[in-house]
Design a protein that fits this description.
It is built from 17 helices and 22 strands. With 481 residues, the protein is α/β, with parallel strands linked by helices. It folds into 3 domains: 234 residues, Phosphoenolpyruvate-binding domains (TIM Barrel, Alpha-Beta Barrel); 77 residues, Beta Barrel (M1 Pyruvate Kinase, Domain 3), CATH 2.40.33.10; 128 residues, Pyruvate kinase, C-terminal domain (Pyruvate Kinase, Chain: A, domain 1, 3-Layer(aba) Sandwich). An 8-stranded parallel β-barrel has the order 1-2-3-12-13-14-15-16, surrounded by 7 helices. It has a 6-stranded mixed β-sheet with strand order 6-5-9-8-7-11, with no helix packed on it. A 6-stranded mixed β-sheet has the order 19-18-17-20-21-22. A hairpin with a 5-residue loop joins β21 and β22. α1 packs across α2 and α10 packs across α12.
Length: 481
């Protein structure tokens, strides 16, 4: 199951894609990581989906990643008398703590944190940004706002506060229960919603520990403000463009996408571009030209993965959407300008011996026209360092840890093979050559570069490079430092 592209594909599971046979077909079509949306999944459903993915993994003998996406805090207004009311531009509207049906003048807001944190001048958005208001006055029990963009407001609609940093963490009671269950099942990535600052990720880390890799969903303006701290405290990032486009001017989202991808790449941490990538394929067997360009842009930016949401979860054409995304990525990566564009945003390696060696391996492989880079990686750090350089040749990660293989399913260009650690350095070279040969990454007469941390199995060390050429049996015939 070798992919013919480097960018990975994440697909959300749902009613259209929950059957075990469909999950297997989606993996064959190109899915590398399956996303389970905890907002819409009971524990029974989560268990079935997890089991089906693991069954596909066993059937195909390839590590498959599972991403559990937590719901995060949701803020909604109370009920509205008559079901809905119209709010005109310039009208004054009040949010209060009175638990009665709302009207054209007021509505119940059951969230004391909002009353505590909001300030005059802050923006309030209702119904995914369709209605916009500006706060003019507040107290502990009321918020008065002026309607800037009017419309029809109905009960239980969501409310967003793009200018307000709320005094809450990103994990609700529901999230904590969902997280505990997902970790006990054995998911590989956990995506955290409603991240506002780096401290949110550090607190989540105390709960998650090393049970799974931790991904920050960038969907709040406050997260952009504290982006560097969030990147530093995360294992990966997701550009959640849907919510980001609700809380910020939509014209800013493309530039922010490039900024987030660039910072994640510089840190050597996987980054996923998500939301509405092939939205029209929910109901159509083909995407729009604009959607194709959108996916291509994420690939040209060097994102580790692109993600499908409703397209694969509830759409009519989940398999076609995966195949289309695969074809777009393959076409982008075969473009003669691809390498120059991807490396135009390349950053210097970090000032560590491990990062310097990973960068050097890329340079050596290019100079000697080698067939691939083979990484021994117990925790995934060596493979991620090599992938950070976005080399123009295959990266094969060899790991004895199945969890590492599943985690690396999200990493750009990394083809992970599960194998035991060799006994010594000579055996290490032989095994690397044999696997590269058997997996079709190198042929007789071609060379590979091998990167590892010695002693093998020591997490966080990348301190050795070897070069070897293969004979017609896949064995090394020449070796050098």
């Amino acid at each position: 199951m070798r992919r013919s592209r480097r960018v990975k594909i994440v697909a959300t599971l749902g009613p259209a894609s929950s059957a075990p046979e469909m999950i297997a077909q989606l993996f064959e079509a190109g899915v590398d990581v399956f996303r389970i949306n905890m907002s819409h999944s009971s524990f029974e459903v989560v268990k079935k989906l997890h089991g089906a993915v693991r069954a596909a993994e066993a059937a195909f003998s390839r590590p498959i990643g599972i991403l559990a996406d937590l719901q995060g805090p949701k803020f909604r207004i109370g009920d509205v008398g008559g079901g809905s009311v119209a709010l005109g531009e310039g009208a004054t509207f009040r949010f209060d703590t009175t638990e009665s049906a709302g009207s054209a003048q007021r509505v119940f807001l059951p969230h004391p944190q909002i009353f505590e944190a909001v300030e005059p001048g802050h923006t309030l958005l209702l119904d995914d940004g369709k209605i916009r208001m500006t706060v003019v006055d507040k107290s502990a029990s009321r918020i008065d706002a002026t309607v800037v963009v009017g419309g029809t407001i109905s009960g239980r609609k969501g409310i967003s506060l793009p200018d307000t940093v709320l005094p809450i963490g990103p994990l609700t009671d529901k999230d904590r229960k969902d997280l505990d269950y997902a970790l006990r099942l054995g998911v590989d990535w956990v995506a955290l919603s409603f991240v506002q600052r780096g401290e949110d990720m550090r607190l989540a880390r105390q709960i998650v520990g090393h049970g799974a890799a931790l991904m920050a969903k960038i969907e709040k303006p406050a997260a952009i403000t504290d982006l560097d701290a969030i990147v530093a405290s995360s294992d990966g990032l997701m550009v959640a463009r849907g919510d980001l486009g609700v809380e910020m001017p939509v014209e800013r989202v493309p530039g922010l996408q490039k900024q987030i991808v660039s910072k994640a790449r510089a840190a050597g941490k996987p980054v996923v571009v998500a939301t509405q990538m092939l939205e029209s394929m929910i109901t159509s067997p083909v995407p729009t030209r604009a959607e194709v360009s959108d996916v291509a842009t994420a690939c040209f930016d060097g994102a580790d993965a692109v993600m499908l949401s409703a397209e694969s979860a509830v759409g009519k054409y989940p398999l076609q959407a995966i195949r289309m995304m695969d074809r777009i990525a393959v076409e982008v990566e075969s473009d003669p300008n691809y390498g120059a564009i991807v490396h135009a945003t390349r950053t210097p390696p970090l000032a560590t011996a491990a990062d310097a060696i990973a960068a050097a391996a890329h340079t050596v492989a290019d100079t000697l026209k080698l067939a691939g880079i083979i990484c021994y990686t117990a925790t995934g750090s060596t493979a991620l360092r090599v992938a950070r350089e976005r080399p123009g040749l295959p990266v094969v990660g060899l790991s004895p840890v199945v969890g590492t293989g599943r985690k690396l399913a999200l990493a750009w260009g990394v083809h992970c093979v599960l194998t035991s650690d060799p006994e010594n350095q000579a055996a290490m070279v032989r095994k690397a050559c044999r696997i590269a040969f058997d997996e079709g990454f190198a042929k007789a007469g071609e060379g590979v570069i091998i990167v590892a941390g010695v002693p093998l199995g020591s997490p966080g060390t990348t301190n050795m490079v070897r070069i070897a050429h293969l004979d017609d049996q896949g064995n090394p015939v020449a070796e050098g430092v």
